[in-house]
Automatic annotation (TrEMBL):
PROSITE patterns: GNAT (PS51186). Coiled coil: none annotated. Residues 29-198 form the N-acetyltransferase domain. This is Acetyltransferase, GNAT family. GO terms for molecular function: protein N-terminal-serine acetyltransferase activity; protein-N-terminal-alanine acetyltransferase activity. Pfam families: Acetyltransf_3. The keyword Transferase applies. It comes from uncultured Acidimicrobiales bacterium. Keywords: Transferase.
Length: 252
């Protein structure tokens, strides 16, 4: 269903930002490209719902290490900034994640030069009451389905500090392989991160048939993709089925 149409003087015009129609659904979670209302609600998760004092799952000067309005402003302006930079050359897709109709967290994917390198990286968080029930794994499974099946990715990458066992657990459970290490900063100082890589081939072994992507076709040109988001010849022989630009699709 197309939601983002504009009606001016009774004339219906196509969506200016068709990503607002993009959603990915699994039997357990619904990921919808985040609206401003979603981003405001998710910015408010910087109140200890995700990260308590002393916990350091994120690198850099994350808004999760702040409290009060400054934390929420940093969170939402960070998302707005990334949304406004989104183009074929670099894009950032933020999704509000709902389970049983409840807003439980956020799942992002980001890519640079995607049409050429076909690589995405992911970021996510869940509010504490919803953890340990497989929802983190489910939302990552949804986003990599979008990346590999919907967009024709060849590689999905994920990094986690060595003490972030749930994040590493998701990667391992979904077939990612260890891909080296890096050192990144967090409030207590530099710390080691593990890198994980999921190739298209390994994703294909585990790919699910119960994940549905809706509203993608109209966004493909915005992301630098043509109507067939097929990987470069030689990189991977798999054919990615993406329906024609401008059509409504319902893919599984
Ligand atoms: C990372 C996060 C999204 C994981 O969500 P979750 O719903 O708790 O994780 P799941 O229940 O889906 O577990 C995923 C896998 O990790 C494993 N796992 C979870 N916690 C674990 C732990 N403490 N030790 C070892 N394995 C663990 C699970 O067993 C599962 O693997 P399995 O399917 O093989 O059993 C959540 O913990 C979170 O929001 N953390 C704070 C933010 C963060 O760290 N984000 C990621 C960094 S960008």
């Amino acid at each position: 269903m197309v939601r983002s149409v504009a009606r001016v003087s009774g004339v219906v015009t196509p969506a200016v930002w068709p990503l607002f129609d993009l959603q990915v659904e699994t039997p357990r979670v619904e990921l919808r490209y985040a609206t401003d209302d979603d981003l405001q609600a998710l910015a408010a998760f910087r109140d200890g719902r995700v990260v308590e004092v002393g916990e350091e799952p994120f690198d850099g000067d994350s808004s999760f290490y702040m409290r009060g309005p400054q934390a929420r402003w940093k969170a939402i302006t960070g998302e707005w900034g990334a949304r406004s930079r989104t183009s074929a050359a670099w894009w950032h897709l933020a999704f509000a994640v709902r389970a049983d109709g409840e807003l439980v967290g956020q799942q992002n994917i980001t890519a640079g030069e995607f049409p050429q390198v076909r690589t995405v990286s992911s970021f996510s968080f869940l509010a504490k009451p919803y953890r340990g029930q497989g929802l983190g794994k489910e939302m990552r499974a949804a986003i990599i389905h979008l990346a590999f099946h919907g967009l024709g990715a060849l590689r999905a990458e994920s990094d986690a500090f060595v003490d972030n066992l749930p994040s590493a657990g998701i990667s391992t459970a979904l077939g990612y392989e260890p891909n080296g290490t890096l050192v990144a900063t967090r409030p207590s100082g530099p710390a080691l991160m593990r890198r994980f890589l999921l190739t298209r081939e390994r994703w294909g072994v585990r790919r699910r048939d119960d994940i549905q992507i809706d509203g993608l076709a109209a966004s493909l040109p915005l992301l630098g993709l043509t109507e067939t988001a097929e990987p470069e010849p030689g990189a991977d022989a798999a054919v990615v089925e993406v329906s024609g630009v401008g059509e409504e699709e319902s893919e599984t």
